[in-house]
Amino acid sequence: MGFYTDRILPHITDKVCGVAQNGPLRERACAGLHGAVLEVGFGSGNNVGFYPVAVERVSGVEPADTAWKIAAKRVAASSTPIERAGLDGQSLPFPDATFDTALSTFTLCTIPDVAAALAEIRRVLRPGGTLHFVEHGLAPEESVQTWQYRLDPIQQRIAGGCHLSRDIAGLITDAGFEITELDRFYHPGAPKALAALSLGVAGRS
Question: Residue 169: which residues within 8 A CB-CB, separation 6 or more?
Answer without folding.
Answer: 179, 182, 184, 198, 200
